[in-house]
């Protein structure tokens, strides 16, 4: 790429400004604080969900344990009631009635032991259900927070995308009709140099790398034809010469 109309080179700065704005919008979209917050919330929700599943499983185990304990107590009660009814009827030999009395005493002790087990399981289940309710509430609160943040993120996305669409339209207009070789060089350099392929020469300074050119390089550039495409000796970007301000 050796030459391009001076007007095209100056218009290239408009294209560069719009490309820079598009890059800024893309960076803003990637760097929204809502995205970082969602990562935090996702991790917290996942941790609480794991705790919730574990807690629910433990509660289910305790409910089954309580059901068994209640069944064991009920079984002893039924047997004791049956023995008591037989004893109250007075039917049977003295030896049989004495055996029933002994069994009733044993069943009473057994029922007491089982009721203690039942009560202990009930207390554990009650405490665990309280903890489960707390985990459930905390999990739901985090899910609701996540929904709010997702809504905020989507609103921000729409605003950024709308502005980006507008800028892309302006960029297409600005680039229309530009020298194809100039644009190709610009795009190549933009990809190699952090998104900035063209910069203005203001005074002695390249606006791309912000460095001042030495007098020899500056004189050499000023001595080139207007349509000559020049590059910054420091950063390699297309260096666009602007008209000298009128002398008063």
In short:
With 248 residues, the protein is mainly alpha-helical.
How does this structure look, described?
With 248 residues, the protein is mainly alpha-helical. The protein has two domains: 6-26 and 179-241, no CATH class; 32-165, Helix Hairpins (Orthogonal Bundle). Helices cover 75% and strands 5% of the residues. The chain is built from five helices and four strands; from the N terminus they run H-H-H-H-E-E-H-E-E. It has helices spanning 6-30, 33-89, 94-175, 180-192, 215-222, and strands spanning 198-202, 205-206, 230-231, 238-241. Strand 1 (198-202) and strand 2 form a beta hairpin. The two termini are 36 Å apart.
Report the major sheet. Answer: 4 strands, mixed
- Indicate the CATH architecture of the largest domain: Orthogonal Bundle
Number of helices: 5
How much is the average pLDDT? Answer: 91
Low-confidence blocks of residues: none
Q: What portion of residues is helical? A: over 70%
Q: Mind telling me the CATH class of the largest domain? A: Mainly Alpha
- The rough form would be described as rod-shaped
- List SSEs in N-to-C order: HHHHEEHEE
Strand element count: 4
Question: What count of structural domains?
Answer: 2
Structural class determined from secondary elements: mainly alpha
End-to-end Cα distance, whole Å, is 36 Å
CATH topology heading of the largest domain: Helix Hairpins
Strand order of the largest sheet: 2-1-4-3
Beta fraction:
5-15%
What integer value in Å does the Rg equal?
Answer: 42 Å
Write the layout of secondary structure elements.
Layout: H1 6-30, H2 33-89, H3 94-175, H4 180-192, E1 198-202, E2 205-206, H5 215-222, E3 230-231, E4 238-241
Parallel strand pairs: 1-4
Antiparallel strand pairs: 1-2, 3-4
